[in-house]
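[job 4471] stage=fold_predict status=RUNNING
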Amino acid sequence: MNQSSDRQRLQALLTERSVRVGDFTLSSGARSTYYVDARLTTMSAEGQALVGAVGYGAIREAGWDPTHVGGLTLGADPVSYAIAHHSWTVGAPIDAYTVRKEAKAHGTGKRIEGGLPADARVVVIEDAITSGASALAAISAVREHGVEVLGVFCLVDRDEGGRARIEASGYAVLAAFSGPDLRARALAL
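[job 4471] inference complete, writing structure tokens
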């Protein structure tokens, strides 16, 4: 497949597997007429392959040259791992990392897993952006670690102010898909 057909198939897969229409309360506390559970796509075998190709392509197309991709667990994890895996298959390795919500209370007490060096160049990953709080929390954690944040890549931007909040903090945001567009596609099924 090529980047365009991968993107089209990923959009269809997200619409079929991940978008639900109804009455939902989001993690931000806001009410919504639709919900995107991207993990139903990003944790599937086909979804992994497509997310890796589309995410890697978007990051490279933006001109970003990260050493690592990752974000706040759990939503960012399968997206980050898919991109890292795809990067290896094309001969341009980008490693993944995970930011815990809190540092471990045992062992080494790490908040960031995956061997993220202090001189890394990272892209923060999100499965879906609503308020932007998760991405900003991940940015804060990795900045405290000393890395350079190149920007944020999200699979779905719900277009509810999160992107603007992240950009107002000085970080570019790439979004593969728009939540309202996915909702419209789900309603048309």
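[job 4471] summary: Strands lie at 19-25, 31-36, 68-72, 95-99, 112-113, 121-129, 148-157, 173-178.
[job 4471] exit 0
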